[in-house]
Design goal:
about 60 residues; alpha+beta; 4-stranded mixed beta sheet; 4 strands; about 30% strand
Amino acid sequence: MEILAFHSSRPADPDLYHDHDDCPDGKGIASWNRTVGAFGYHRCPICRSLDSRAGLSA
């Protein structure tokens, strides 16, 4: 399911945003490192593929 977009505030993490609650990479971001919004980053490819599997537009 799509959720509010967020990205990691850690400089070592990739510049991607996540917007799917089943994304393992997004789940791996600690709550204190989550920043709301896409921040101009590209969408996480795993989130995109999860939407494709669910029949949603990517």
